[in-house]
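Researcher: Structure for this, please.
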Amino acid sequence: MEQDSLKTRIGTALRAQRNHWGLSQERLAHRVGLTTRYIAGLERSEFNVTVDTLDELARILGVDPVALLNGELRDELPEQRDAPADANPVKRRSASSDARGSEPGKS
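Model: Predicted structure, token format:
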């Protein structure tokens, strides 16, 4: 079995974390100061990413660059100073939906 290249792993992890936060390629590109085409190319493994760009992407997405390389998704919101203003994790539940017994007829 052939291992995925590092470029492929980075692209896959970048897309997964971006989607997890509910950010479009356009919004992420804007926040990092890159083009949408470049973000799309990174996600499709068409371009090589510099260490500085990877570090900035990870910072904007609220993850450690090593965690991003390992494909680890961050479920909890980063501290406010690091959180993308428009971050909205897809799998995150609201506080009201976490309350036990809040549904009628459930015990």
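Researcher: Any notable elements?
Model: Confidence is low (pLDDT under 50) at residues 79-83, 91-107. The chain has six helices and no strands.
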